[in-house]
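User: I'm curious whether this sequence folds into something compact or stays loose and floppy. Could you predict its structure so I can see for myself?
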Amino acid sequence: MLARQRQAMILEEARRTGAVRVSDLVGRLGVSDMTIRRDLDVLAGRGLVEKVYGGATSIIGKSTDEPGFEAKSGRQRVQKEAIAAVAAELVRPGTAIGISAGTTTWTLARALDSVPGLTIVTNSIQVADVLRSSNQAERTVVLTGGVRTPSDALVGPVAVASLRTLHLDVVFLGVHGMADGPGFTTPNLTESETDRALVEAGRKLVVLADHTKWGTVGISTIADLNEADVVVSDDGLPEHAREILAEQAGEVLLAETIEAEEA
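Assistant: Here's the prediction. I'll summarize afterward.
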């Protein structure tokens, strides 16, 4: 088992139970005490767990915690870039697409520079800024109005009203978390309503979520797992999460990141 896969399993167990013990992980994963401690050091360094005597505890925030755009943009950069590259392959020239707010969808926007003739609707100030600086002269960018959130999304009744009049070929949705039962979630109640309107405007839904989003649950559900036509994640996604998504979503695409991290 590769280190990234092992760390993903440790993180998921910490989130599921609230805490993990080194001794339990040694027996479960069949590796040395020192290996587990190094894994916990990596996860703690990424701000995902807090090390304690004999193990670690989960430090997932409350279901309403919403980090700002800058705070989120530095997390899982390799994974987000790999996911964006895979998602960009799903975009056809001349189509109308929706892109929700988020750092993964912002990374996707940066990967669309070579796709001509797009009409792009977004409720993200950051995404709109990226698209505005594109060299594509034939591109149309529509930014919804609304109230600005900490993650630079425009939400509320103005955004919802504008989205409900549109018909898009594909919607690319970034999420705060995904889990069996709650589905795809956000920590912002108003943003969930806006995202649902964006989802409903599209004929096809593509969800972009790196492996750390699995098991994270925000206060409000945007969509059920089975509403996604495609889920694009990375190869750090735990095996049982892959199985659940494969059963419920239309298709699961996993971006390769291990070689990129080692390079």
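Summary: The radius of gyration is 19 Å. The mean pLDDT is 88.
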